[in-house]
UniProtKB/TrEMBL annotation:
Keywords, sorted A to Z: ATP-binding, Coiled coil, Microtubule, Motor protein, Nucleotide-binding
Entry keyword Iron-sulfur: no
Chain positions covered by the region annotation Disordered: 519-560, 596-783
Species per Swiss-Prot/TrEMBL record: Glycine soja (Wild soybean)
Cross-referenced InterPro entries: Kinesin-like_fam (IPR027640), Kinesin_motor_CS (IPR019821), Kinesin_motor_dom (IPR001752), Kinesin_motor_dom_sf (IPR036961), P-loop_NTPase (IPR027417)
Bias (Basic and acidic residues) ranges: 603-624, 655-672, 693-710, 730-747
Residue numbers binding ATP: G275, Q276, T277, G278, S279, G280, K281, T282
Entry protein name: Kinesin-like protein
GO MF annotation terms: ATP binding; microtubule binding; microtubule motor activity
GO CC, alphabetical: microtubule
Pfam family, one: Kinesin
Length: 872
């Protein structure tokens, strides 16, 4: 660099003047590129050209301008590399950010949130700042040798190894296995709130009666066909039932308090509230962390923990529309990453040390105020998100003051001993909140729905000690991943509204709770309780109608039930291994919203063998007040028939609808484990996989795809499709097939794309291979989640396209600079320019295609959701 420029650069460092886009504009103008204006130009220059530009008198003429230009370029980190590496910011770039103010407000102000801020705006910034993964306790399911980590984690071992003799390790962390065993792995508690003002004003009846501390009855008002009113009784039994007089303190004592000591014993506990909007979830959940923090802090003050530098940390975030936001940091968007050990880190999440309980209150208030809420008919301040407050006990090793990470987030330096997550779920019926709503609200609802389903699945898998925990089912379960493995404890508080107007939702909530409990291996609700807590009359009725011997007491019943449940656990695993069963499971995983689109009018739940795996329940129905039946759904219809004399109304009334919605062309696995779609002829033409236009039909037969042993896609057809014959598509053929043909996405999944004609019918557009086939994709939620995924992909692609463009522009600038050099070869210039322009065009066309696909998908989703949810 010439002396003058070097001097200018030096002067600039001191000067600290603002970089003006006027300078940039002039500079671009002189290069004939004024239309690029400041943002693009500012990032598209090779720094090696800088001396040339300055020397040749491009742009900045005065010393001051030159200084500004140089400063600008320094700030933009003109190293010719950063622009092409969108997701791996270097420490260098961070350094720049820190020292040169890359993200300084003055630059943001001048260049807006344009290209300059690419990295600042997206997840990368978060990742780069906080990607240090927490040293969580390794999962027992984690592949590879985790011994070192465990040893590292284990305070006892680490103490011994490090030769620290100041504390007796065996005393320091008493592993009280008896105590741990005494705390149930899953506890399901129901809380009934009092009638609220609105319900009282409407003179609504209280239809929920609580008997003892574990039983409740819902008296459902019904009408006979001849319009005579009658009451149907539904009885439930849980680990605890708390009536409307129970205080929040008592709720704490019966739910969270017993878990607190286990937090110091490496337990990851989860306490969540489930229930319809306005049922009291927030009211119930909000005080719990406060009380828990009190107890945790008290424990931490014990010398044994204090000496080991145990500390309590709090974080509070929400999951809204499948995205994470920090409620204690201005709703900053967070991203979730898995580290090499498959441990989940929420990148950028702020954690605050809790030394004093009062601060917890403040945090709760602050976080709750930041939470996404909206108004519903049932609740003026209805939660539209899942809020997760975590209290983590961490052990901090002694760090020399000089070495201490001085970033104000010491939390990261500690190792998690145990933690408890409090989750205030969004209203359970929000999935049904789709009528007359905009796309955002519908997606919101479907997201909620999906996560509630996934949560239930995880809890079930967890309690069945399944190896495969389906935590990838939703963001919620992914976030809670480490709470689903190892030592975990779950408390579910089902909140119910007592009013007659909420009866259906109340029943749905109770059924969800019942299913969570009853499907678990330890789901033996009242084995340890006095059986005659059940009203005598019902006991009798149960005995007389159930398949169990009349003499069998509740204990026997429970024994059998438990046996059955364990068997169920086994079967569930088997089921997981079979694709067919997996498909059946998808049926089982119907939305919890019980919205009208999932409900038929009281149709009986017919046997669907694999799906009925989890139908066991203990719901006593006393229809018309004169007969009671008990349903013990089993694995097969025959089993059910044998044991059920009178079938109570379906838990999910939607079965009929679901069945009719589900195409017969369900996926099966053939003998070779290939994915095989079967279809009936009728559904070929009307099938949910999309109707086939005439042209397409003539071009290809009834098109079901099968993967043969070589991994090729086979097209199979039923006999009625006379034109159909097996044909194997070669790779080339595949590229020729019509638009609405199966496509393999980046993950190797097969995706059906449909033509516009097919949009309105394509319920099952995405078909993913693998054992979890269509669990979400075949459901309405699956469709929405596909939209969300595509949305993310589109945004990522857009970002990538901009970065590519920047790279290309950089090359163009270089070309221009070169061609202006004396003696430059024009041929060279032309060839290179042609190449660069082709790349530019390809990049743009790719993005346009993706955009069009997404628009198409949005329309499709819109049509589908309108079709599914009849206006009320
Ligand atoms: N057990 C209770 N005792 C007295 N009032 C209650 C109780 N439970 C809830 N409430 C009141 O009912 C109203 C709704 O409760 P809350 O906001 O907790 O419902 P929610 O289930 O969280 O609703 P959403 O899902 O819409 O957020 C609040 O005004 C709350 O104070």
């Amino acid at each position: 660099m010439p002396q003058g420029n070097a001097a200018a650069a030096a002067a600039l460092l001191d000067h600290g003047g603002d970089a003006g886009d006027a300078v940039m504009a002039r500079w671009l103008q002189s290069a004939g590129l004024q239309h690029l204006a400041s943002p693009l130009a500012s990032t598209a220059i090779d720094h090696r050209l800088l001396p040339n530009l300055l020397m040749q008198g491009y742009g900045a003429q005065s010393t001051e301008e030159k200084q500004r230009l140089l400063k600008l370029m320094r700030n933009l980190n003109f190293n010719g590399e950063s622009g092409s590496e969108p997701y791996t910011p270097t420490t260098q770039s961070l350094g720049v950010a820190g020292s040169d103010g890359f993200y300084s407000p003055e630059f943001r102000g001048e260049f807006g949130a344009g290209l300059l801020d690419l990295h600042a705006m997206d997840d990368t910034e978060l990742l780069s700042e906080h990607v240090v993964s927490e040293p969580f306790e390794p999962s027992p399911f984690m592949p590879g040798d985790t011994r070192v980590f465990e040893d590292d984690f284990d305070p006892i071992n680490s103490k011994l190894e490090s030769g620290e003799a100041d504390t007796d390790a065996s005393i320091s962390l008493p592993m009280n296995s008896t105590r741990e065993n005494n705390v149930a792995k899953i506890k399901v508690v129901v809380r009934k709130r009092p009638l609220n003002k609105k319900e009282l004003a409407k003179k609504e009846d209280d239809v929920v009666t609580v008997t003892g501390n574990a039983y409740l009855t819902v008296h459902e008002p019904k009408l006979k066909v001849d319009l005579t009113a009658y009451v149907e009784k539904h009885e439930f039994c849980f680990d605890a039932v708390l009536d409307e007089h129970v205080t929040n303190d008592e709720v704490y004592r019966s739910t969270v308090e017993p878990i607190i000591p286990t937090i110091f014993e490496r337990t990851k506990a989860t306490c969540f509230a489930y229930g319809q909007t306005g049922s009291g979830k927030t009211y119930t959940m909000q005080p719990l962390p406060l009380r828990a923090a009190e107890d945790l802090v008290r424990q931490l003050h014990q010398p044994v923990y204090r000496d080991q530098r145990f500390k309590l940390w709090l974080s509070y975030f929400e999951i809204y529309g499948g995205k994470l936001y920090d409620l204690l940091s201005d709703r900053k968007k967070l991203c979730m990453r898995e580290d090499g050990r498959q441990q989940v880190c929420i990148v950028g999440l702020q954690e605050f040390e809790v030394c004093d309980v009062l601060i917890v209150k403040e945090f709760i208030e602050k976080g709750s105020a930041a939470r996404s809420t909206g108004s519903t008919g049932a609740n003026e301040e209805s939660s539209r998100s899942h809020a997760i407050l975590q209290l983590a006990v961490k052990k901090h090793s002694e760090v020399k003051a000089s070495k201490r990470n001085n970033d104000g987030n010491e939390a990261r330096s500690g190792k998690v001993v145990g933690k408890i997550s409090f989750i205030d779920l969004a209203g359970s019926e929000r999935g049904a909140d789709t009528t007359d709503n905009d796309r955002q609200t519908r997606i919101e609802g479907a997201e909620i729905n999906k996560s509630l389903l996934a949560l239930k699945e995880c809890i079930r898998a967890l309690d069945n000690d399944q190896i495969h925990i389906p935590f990838r089912g939703s963001k919620l379960t992914e976030v809670l991943r480490d709470s689903f493995v190892g030592n975990s404890k779950t408390v579910m508080i089902s909140c119910i509204s007592p009013g007659a107007g909420s009866c259906e939702h109340t029943l749905n909530t109770l059924r969800y709770a019942d299913r969570v409990k009853s499907l678990s291996k330890s789901g033996n609700p009242r084995k340890d309780q006095v059986p005659n807590a059940v009203p005598q009359t019902n006991n009798k009725e149960v005995s007389s109608t159930s398949s169990f011997p009349a003499s069998a007491g509740a204990e026997d019943f429970n024994d059998q039930r438990q046996e059955k449940t364990m068997d169920m656990g086994r079967k569930f695993v088997e089921k997981e291994n079979s694709l067919h069963s997996s498909a059946a499971a998808a049926v089982d995983k119907q939305p919890l919203s019980y919205s009208s689109n999932y409900l038929s009018n009281g149709g009986e739940e017919k046997g669907f063998p694999s799906a009925s795996v989890d139908r066991e329940r203990y719901e006593v129905k006393n229809s018309h007040g004169d007969s009671t039946s008990q349903k013990m759904n089993s694995y097969s219809q025959s089993d059910t028939d044998e044991k059920v004399q009178k079938v109570s109304p379906p838990r999910r009334k939607g079965y009929k609808d679901e069945k009719s919605e589900r195409p017969a062309n369900w996926m099966k696995k053939d003998a070779n484990g290939s994915d095989l779609f079967t279809t009936s002829s009728k559904q070929q033409s009307t099938g949910n996989y999309g109707t086939v236009s005439k042209d397409e039909k003539s071009e290809r037969p009834a098109n079901w795809m099968k993967r043969d042993a070589n991994g090729s896609d086979l097209v199979t057809t039923s006999s009625k499709q006379s034109t159909g014959s097996y044909s194997t598509l070669s790779k080339d053929e595949k590229s020729e097939r019509p638009a609405n043909w199966i496509k393999r996405d980046a993950n190797g999944s097969d995706t059906f794309t449909t033509s516009s004609k097919q949009q309105s019918t394509g319920n099952y557009n995405n078909i993913t291979t693998g054992s979890r086939l269509n669990e979400t994709e075949s459901s309405p939620d699956g469709n929405v989640s596909a939209v969300l995924e595509e949305e993310e992909a589109l945004i990522a692609a857009h970002r990538k396209e901009i970065e590519d463009t920047m790279e290309i522009v950089r090359e163009e600038m270089k070309l221009l600079a070169e061609v202006d050099q004396p003696g430059s070869l024009i041929d060279n210039y032309v060839t290179k320019l042609s190449f660069v322009l082709s790349r530019k065009a390809a990049s743009l066309v790719g993005l346009q295609a993706r955009l069009a696909r997404f628009q198409h998908r949005l329309k499709e989703q819109e049509i589908l959701s309108r079709k599914r949810v009849p206006r009320q």
